[in-house]
Write a structure and sequence with these properties.
Length: 249
């Protein structure tokens, strides 16, 4: 359960570490056959906890640490997990929520759920590994919309690009997520784990065969990716959010 309800379950730095710890622990558990990832109070995840950003985002080293170790560490633990993961998506699924959902195997959403990554309003881009992950699952066209025009898309939009397996009435999301998990649990757990390993291998092979595949950014040299840390635009975007005003870019 993603739990930070006072901020629509936005991910704090500590929550990223917890995400990593939870999934690394699950990977070693022979008794767990399926994981359902959901957010508290009918919101999946509204992004990152922006109230923390001024503490670390304006220095390149700390910004790199955040994305490459804290955020990617949590996402990588999900991606490396051999247990099937079902995403129960409700309410807000923004930024970090899109990234976490992209690590799940089966994604179900309520009809009123909204998806996006409007971080251009805050003056910064999506980190390369994270953008590649979302692009792989949602498609480059969708990611361009989300990142370049801060578009907010509907559940039906995301179903149309095959990011979602199903769009349900809001009242049915929890029920169907549980039913999906029960169907998975009823099947052979070893087969599920082996299937996940095979699928990871297929994705890896696909990346090596397609030079222009967006997922190649997972292995991109990120030495200069966080040089914007101390830029005026970056500072202005976050400060404007914290001051509840329109940013002046």
């Amino acid at each position: 359960m993603i739990s930070h309800p006072q901020r629509f379950n936005a991910m704090s730095r500590d929550m990223w570490w917890q995400l990593r710890s939870v999934f690394e622990g699950l990977q070693g558990s022979a008794d767990v056959r399926c994981v359902v990832v959901a957010g508290e109070n009918q919101n999946f995840c509204a992004g990152g906890d922006i109230s923390e950003y001024a503490d670390f985002r304006f220095e390149e080293a700390s910004l790199r640490q955040f994305h490459e170790v804290e955020v990617w560490g949590g996402l990588r633990a999900m991606l490396d997990c051999d247990i099937p993961i079902v995403a129960q998506i409700e309410g807000h699924c923004m930024g970090a929520g899109m990234e976490i959902a992209s690590c799940c195997d089966i994604r179900l959403a309520g009809a009123s759920t909204r998806f996006g990554a409007p971080i251009a309003r805050l003056g910064f881009p999506m980190a390369p590994r994270e953008a590649a992950l979302v692009a792989r699952e949602a498609g480059l066209s969708v990611v361009r919309q989300m990142l370049l025009e801060a578009a907010i898309l509907s559940a039906s939009d995301m179903k149309a690009v095959a990011f979602l397996n199903a769009v349900l009435a809001d009242t049915q999301v929890v029920i169907e997520a549980q039913a999906t998990a029960e169907r998975i649990v009823a099947l052979a757990p070893q087969a599920a784990r082996l299937n996940k390993r095979t699928l990871r291998s297929l994705l890896s092979a696909s990346r090596s065969d397609q030079a222009l595949d967006a997922a190649q950014a997972l292995d991109t040299d990120t030495d200069s990716s966080y040089a914007y840390a101390n830029s005026a635009e970056h500072r202005e975007g976050i400060q404007a959010f914290l001051e509840k005003r329109k940013p002046a870019f």
